[in-house]
Design a protein that fits this description.
Structural class: alpha/beta
CATH architecture of the largest domain: 3-Layer(aba) Sandwich
Largest sheet: 6 strands, mixed
Order of helices and strands: HEEHEHEHEHEHHEHEHEHHEHH
Shape: globular
CATH topology of the largest domain: Rossmann fold
Helix content: 40-55%
Strand content: 5-15%
CATH class of the largest domain: Alpha Beta
Oligomer: single chain
Radius of gyration: 20 Å
Length: 367
């Protein structure tokens, strides 16, 4: 948790000038950035169902987490938590750290990412490319304490995305991801989606989507897809805010060993547990269909979205479904796109990939 420090005179003209310039630079990044694309995933026309993927991999730092990092930096700056010359420290599974390293460099402060050793080397390289430093720990369960300790030792600010993600984002609008999706669907055959499917690391995106839907009185439902080795699904089913699991998620960027403060289970309508093999199979099919490599968290959401499409088709329902491309697959060539890695993890994607291909050819069920 962030703790207000007293070592900066908030009225000092030099500090106030630095703060104004830092906020301007972060807001200017948003002003320079175009919206991300909403891609159509082809389904048989006679189904009367449209599937879209919001391609968040086109952000300047290559992932959905660019939105979150920008919001977190503005929130922390305006709260007086980030100070000139002091490091920003984050507990992260990788993509948030890449984006936060970018914003730290933008405003000229050091950045340290605390991550599990299992984080892909490509993500570590990206953090370092953005000028950040990586502090690796043995397990995802250790990142919180290690980040807080580093902040105390260095006099820096622990950003704590898992606590502040849901409150740093303006869920009522201001071009958040939900408002963007609805605007882009305005001229489509089914402009109000039946379902939006998200995945959860912090839970901030699912909270933003769900709150926006409720706020605008849309009939859209929100589904959160959860991978293996994550406690979100069980905590949601059991209404248990203290749910935990002992093993870290193999799907980088999503799944957590504890119920994170930013995950808002009461706001979402449904959760779906997705086998890791199904997540990887889905991104292999995505590459064939759209020619895009994506990370496995995208596959977790895509599998769930296609399951919902199958349910709508079986019920004779028409409408649209939206899910997300969270980050690019080139960060995971040595993992989810490596048959050797899959073999070492005892992940067999063949049965799920066959199910997906038959379903998309309208020759079999999915589930």
């Amino acid at each position: 948790m962030a703790v207000e420090t007293l070592d900066v005179d908030r009225t000092d003209p030099e500090y106030r000038a630095w703060l104004k310039e830092a906020v301007r630079k972060v807001q200017a990044d948003a002003n320079r950035s175009a919206d991300t694309h909403l891609l159509r995933f082809p389904l048989p026309a006679d189904w009367g169902i449209d599937l879209y993927l919001k391609d968040e991999s086109t952000h300047p730092t290559g992932s959905l987490k660019h939105r979150l990092a920008r919001s977190l930096f503005l929130y922390a700056l305006c709260n007086g938590w980030i100070r000139p010359g002091r490091p920003v420290i984050e507990a992260s599974s990788g993509s948030t750290a890449v984006s936060e390293a970018y914003f730290a460099g933008l405003i000229g402060v050091p950045f340290i990412a605390v991550m599990a050793k299992s984080t892909s080397q490509a993500k570590i390289d990206l953090i370092e490319f953005q000028g950040g430093e990586c502090h690796l720990v043995d397990s995802a369960c250790e990142v919180y304490e290690a980040a807080a300790t580093l902040a105390a030792e260095t006099g820096g600010h622990y950003m704590d995305q898992f606590t502040y993600a849901e409150r740093a984002t303006d869920w009522r609008g201001n071009n958040n991801i939900a408002e963007s999706i609805f605007a882009q669907l305005r001229l489509e055959p089914h402009p109000e989606p039946a379902w939006i499917v998200a995945t959860a690391g912090t839970g901030g995106t699912s909270a933003t989507l769900a709150r926006y839907v409720h706020y605008t009185q849309a009939d859209t439902r929100i589904c959160v897809a959860d991978p293996e080795n994550s406690c979100f699904f069980q905590g949601w089913v059991d209404h248990d805010p203290d749910a935990t699991c002992d093993t870290g998620s193999r799907i980088e960027g999503i799944g957590r060993p504890r119920m994170e403060p930013s995950f808002v289970p009461g706001a979402v309508d449904r959760m779906m547990k997705v086998p890791d093999a199904a997540s990887v199979a889905a991104i292999r099919v995505l590459e064939r269909v759209l020619g895009k490599k994506a990370g496995a968290s995208t596959g977790t959401g895509l599998w769930s979205a296609l399951r919902i499409v199958a349910e709508m088709r079986a019920a004779g329902q028409h409408g649209s479904v939206v899910t997300l491309i969270c980050d690019p697959g080139d960060r995971y060539l040595d993992k989810y796109y490596s048959d050797d890695w899959l073999y070492g993890q005892a992940i067999d994607i063949a049965p799920y990939q066959e199910q997906l291909e038959l379903f998309l050819e309208d020759r079999g069920p999915l589930g």
